[in-house]
Amino acid sequence: MRLTWAQPEDLVGHELRQAAEDGRDAAAIRRAWLAAGGRPAPERAGASDAPAPPELRALAARLLDDLAALPNPSARAEPTAWEAVTASLRPPPGPPEAAPPAVDPGLRTRLEAAWLGRAVGCLLGKPVEKLPLAAVRALARAAGNWPLDDWFTARGVPPDLLAAHPWNRRSAPTSLAENIDGMPEDDDLNYPLLNLLLLQRHGRSFTTADVASLWLDELPAGRTFTAERIAYRNLLLGLEPPATATHHNPFREWIGALIRADVHGWTNPGDPAAAAAQAHRDATLTHTGNGVYAALLVAAATAEAATGRADVHGALRAGLAAVPPGSRLAEAVRFAVAAARAAAPTAAGFEPVVDALHARYGHYHWVHAVPNTALLAAALTHADGDFTGSVCRAVSGGWDTDSNGATAGALAGLLAGSPRALPDRWTAPLGNRLSTTVPGFDGTGFDALAHLTAQEAARS
């Protein structure tokens, strides 16, 4: 067995890449690693093919410590501590303009559309997860589904193209048009379910330690990936937050915290600042800097949308207002929104936007929060609130396709306001049920999840 996202000899390559992104001078460490026989990190896989010899693995552990000790010139513009994050905002967050009603009769309906939208977007992106952008486009075009407007399918796709760009091995049996039957298990749904469980047990005043305890009690280690797997390992080593997010964790600015953020917005309708604070306590178990900011943006945007009074552009403005303006993620989102607004307002008009994003941010790993959050913002902006346009643009842009589709679908579903507003071709194959290993939720319907989430939103 070759455990992914955890081998020291792989973590060094990822940390060297992270150092290049945040401005640390790691040239001497890179030379020492390569001279000893070390390799760059795998581009798409979670682990290299063969384990390193003991002496190289020991060197990897030492170099990870050396990399962590390097001065970080981006630290001032990209803080992680909540007090420093809020101090950087323009203006600092305050209370909501008007307190939301204690019981909003329309919230449960909006939440059902959001849960459904999250599942639809995730499922749409699952078969092409990990594929490069050119492969995503080629597979859709071969099926007559470009610009993307429906589920991916193998029908009509030439065998040589499928051989060159195979579907995601784990997802293809349950996520193509010809085989969808309910929502299969995915971490993009597992984490919102865990956060619903978190709120049921601890309320909205939960701590980061409560998140950690819940994971140890209810989340199998094998269901974690990238930053979450490293943080889980760090907990088992006896480390406590926030060290769980930083110790030998080169994935700390990747997308994992973003995919956990929806519930924090859903349960704070009309209060983006409270949603962002909640998301911060969750995110800092596993992430720092831009990885945290992605979660803050999604939580705040979702809280704004949850009122039923905002449009997608107002929601994104509320999300961006929760992010330090000098950060790389804020710059990327501003660029993405501007590019989407300037593009032709057709499905085909989004393709040049994607090309521009890949040209500008393609040096990041395909799971990093910066490019994926930028793509998410561009897709939502360009689709102008349309559900199908939102999920299809998010997935058609490549990178982390299922996570981007999930978050786009959740926000677009919330803005749609009702499950009836979502096209039947998307919702009917889900059969109002999802599969999960999160205790108590396997086989649950999206209507039931909306009811439980609305209860937490109403709880003081």
TrEMBL record:
SUPFAM superfamilies: ADP-ribosylglycohydrolase. Gene3D superfamilies: ADP-ribosylation/Crystallin J1. The keyword Magnesium applies. Mg(2+) binds at D400, D402, S403. The keyword Hydrolase applies. PANTHER family: ADP-RIBOSYLGLYCOHYDROLASE, ADP-RIBOSYLGLYCOHYDROLASE-RELATED. This is ADP-ribosylglycohydrolase family protein. The lineage of its organism: Bacteria, Bacillati, Actinomycetota, Actinomycetes, Kitasatosporales.
